[in-house]
Model the fold of this input.
Amino acid sequence: MEHRCGKKHFEKTEIVSHEYAGADCYCLTVRWPRMMEGSDFPRAGQFYMISLHDKSHILPRPISLHSFDEKQGTLSFVYRPIGAGTQELTQYRAGESLAIQGPLGNGFTVPSAGSCHIIAGGGIGLAPLPQLIRAIRSRQPEARIIFFAGGRDRHIQELIDFFALPADIELILCTDDGSLGIKGFVPDVLSAYIEKHRGSGTSFADIAMIYACGPTAMLNKIRAFSQSAQLPCQLSLERRMACGVRACMGCSIQTAAGVKKVCADGPVFDSLLFPHELP
Done:
């Protein structure tokens, strides 16, 4: 079952498991269709288009890769049901077939230089970040990783627990209502933390990268801070996508290097491409 679409196509796969992940999110795990074909491994920050059974929902849904298990040959996607399409997705069960397309887009790039990696995520933007942590650990086993994770309230802890993050990362939780961790928004907590620890005996001179994924308002603040502090930063943008393969103009955005398409040129971009607020 292959539906041609540009240079890539949909492939039939099997749902291995589908479970509640906490904080109104679900985790869908499927078999990796290309496991036996020697194709490149999916990268943290890339996404897949998932085709729905109900064909009244014509467009597939783009969902970020949450994790890739090479040994098991599986892909996992953590998502929050919001519209009719993702609400339908919650009804799918293990053993059912599913058509997916990917991996698509450009993921995060982990630099070889620098020993401190700062990761920031808010809401469902947390979903692709555990795979990023694994990618950093694979490249730099001794690297320092500081993970700023934000949510509306204390229920964000359910999602963090589901992620089963490595014990040696520095996890800083913040919530909008202050019911867990620090009361406040991720960008404010992140910038205050870095400014506080600069010159206080903790060195941030060797920051390899700031990686951020979440709502546009959050990304704009982190973009502005990283540029003012002259720190390298990658932003994973959230945009509506119709095709996922550069075939339409639905996710086009203006950057300092001209018009780019989030599906193909992103969703991860260097923050320097946006000298002003994100469109």
Summary: Helices lie at 84-89, 129-139, 156-163, 186-197, 216-228, 262-265.
